[in-house]
Amino acid sequence: MLPVWKLIGFVLYVILYYSALDVYTQWPEESLKSFFFKVMPIVHLVFIVISTSLDDDVKPKSSWYRWNIALALIASGIGDCSTFLGHYPPIIMFLIAHLFCICAFGIRPVGSVPMAVSFAVAAVAYYFFLVDIMPMSLIKVSGIVYLVVLFTRAWRSMVVLLIERSVDSFLAWLGSSLFIVSDVLFIVDMFHGSFDRAPFWIMLTYYLAQLGLALSACNTYSQSLLKKND
Predict the structure, then answer these.
(1) 3-state secondary structure of 228
(2) Would you give the DSSP letter of residue 2?
(3) Distance separating alpha carbons of residues 112 and 160, to the nearest angstrom
(4) Could you tell me which residues come within 8 angstroms of residue 136 by beta carbon, excluding any fewer than 6 positions away?
């Protein structure tokens, strides 16, 4: 099992982020300090994924899964640090992160048609409620591409969960779902008017989403994933 001290480190970094930057009711100013405290929880999750796989008493998931998750976390961390460059670099980096997750989950088996349709309907609803009212621009087009990839990731994680029915696959699905929640809150805050303690809830759901993803690569492996990817 994952050593508790590794999770304690993640929790401490998250607490430091909120405490040092006072991220409760407003976003901190972009600075080296804010980037450092924002990205350190993600850096620690990368450490958890890689270091746990090297422990002799732990049977990690396949190397394909583990390294795709690690790369997804690294891409997310870069996205966190690139916000000062404008909207597009973070969008691109998080798109890359989601694509790494999709690679980790795999595209086969496809799963049931009703499930795929339900995620497609959810993506369309997401578009009409949150993206469609944006003025037509490159950022709107980027948002459309992003939501397709985001919901594809959630769909693939659900397929894996229903097939494996393991704690690992549940954590991966939970992380993917919380990422959607975090992005919805972020879009509402950015484009539709803020809400009470928006930065606090957005970052909390974001960190929990990344934690679920990282932990999904740290427990005992799934034979089906090993046969499929190794």
Answers:
(1) helix
(2) -
(3) 12
(4) none
CA distance linking residue 38 with residue 6, whole number of Å? 18
Among candidate residues 24, 70, 82, 18, the one with its CA nearest the CA of residue 44: 70
Phi, psi of 129, deg, nearest 5: -80, -30
The rounded distance, in Å, linking the Cα atoms of 169 and 167 is 6
C-alpha to C-alpha distance for 96 and 41, rounded to whole angstroms: 19
Phi-psi region of 106 (alpha: psi -120 to 50; beta: other; left: phi over 0): left
**Residue 120, CA atoms < 13 Å, CB-side half-sphere:** 6
Q: Which amino acid is at 173?
A: W
Please write the tens of the pLDDT for every residue from 74-107: 999 999 999 888 888 999 999 999 999 999 999 8
Distance of CA 92 to the CA centre of its chain: 14
Phi, psi of 20 (to 5 degrees): -70, -30
Kindly tell me the burial class for residue 37, based on how many C-beta atoms sit within 10 Å of its own C-beta (0-12, 13-18, 19 or more): buried
Residue range 185-198, pLDDT digits in tens: 998 888 777 788 99
